[in-house]
NAD(P)/FAD-dependent oxidoreductase (Candidatus Aveggerthella stercoripullorum), 453 residues
Amino acid sequence: MSERIVDYLVIGNSAAGVTAAEQIRANDAQGSVLIVGREPYAVYGRPLISYLIAGKTTRERLGWKDSGFYDRIGIECLVGPDAEVVSLDPEAHTATLADGSVVTYGKCLLATGSIPFTPPIKGLDGRENVHTFFTLDDAEGVWEDARRARQEADAEGRSARAVVIGSGMIGLKAAEAIAGYVDEVCVFELADRILPAALDAQGSELLQRLLDRHGIMCRPGLSVQEACGDGRRATSVILTNGERTPCDFIVAAVGARPNSKLAVDAGAQQGRGLVCGPDLQTSLPDVYAAGDLVQVTDVLTGDERPLALWPNAVEQGACAGRYMAGAPDAEPFDGAFAVNAVDFFETSLLTAGVINPPEGAGYETLARQERDSYVKFVMKDGRLCGYILLNRPDNAGVYTALIKDKTELSAFPEEAFLDMPLENLDFSRDDRWKRLHAFYPSCLDDRGWKETR
């Protein structure tokens, strides 16, 4: 059994872990850094796996960092099943890998992300043509079955059909990716609308119609209660209303859970995710966490929950890395709010903050639908706290900044939201200056632009 001794151990080779490693190295040029990850790949853009299947990108272009990234910043990276951390001893400051080797660390970051939740549906487990849609390997499996479905359907003179269970972002991106291979994608969703966490009823209804044009049939209010087949492959599903639907393969995308078992088994405090302080240190000594497995405060509602979004993982990873390395400019992570930006075929969707406000809580809404576009703005106490921009992406960043900065909206007429998207010049000179200073602090001083030579 081998043993390593490192100053910093990063468990998880994706957005949060890699960003943390960058910040550790930026603030500690000498400390040894080891990243370990179960997937046998260098860090890649996980949100891009649907584009791989759809033919919009390649394996080579999935990489989030270039091939020389790890060596260039002087960190070691171990990947593959043998590099998975199977146990953590926070008192001894050791981690045991699947191959039996032990790593002794000074400080440790948990960046293990989230794992798919597979519902306990009869006949689903163990089928070789049932897939989740979280990793590159998942995407490869879906891709192989999609091509196989097309070939077999053509040979047998029938339609090819895929079933997707769940209509969240992951489920709908999977549906979009495989729509080019099969004749029909059936998306089943137990909730009463698609994208229930990111859209309201009106926006969901419009998006459902737009997806239907591409052979994606969404059926909210229905789910799968049993997968049926002969042997190891599912050939049909029985729905919660008793209806049977044939299929060539299934994508299960019901949801995700924080991948926090390693930390919890080691004694870490957990709520809906790992509980961390503003420096993102867990309740375990010298153990930090960042990304999907962390419980964060929604700064708009006060709710405590994981926020499984790539930008949030990057921000938390940077924060944790700075604190781990003792950076003098480290700033606390005080919370965040959800921001989504996604395309489905020619349809663009951007959402942020509170989009389904509770009744009687003092919220006001402005909404308008025109043909294939829909906008909605949610306000409270004279400030913007959420928006939906479906097929009207103009200046979404301005609206996000309004939410983040808690800008008073009294100076803006209603038409500035529904009729004419806000632009930078709609703000006062002082507000424009504040926003410029926030985005470009290295180029500005208190008097204006710094001289550049």
Summary: The radius of gyration is 24 Å.
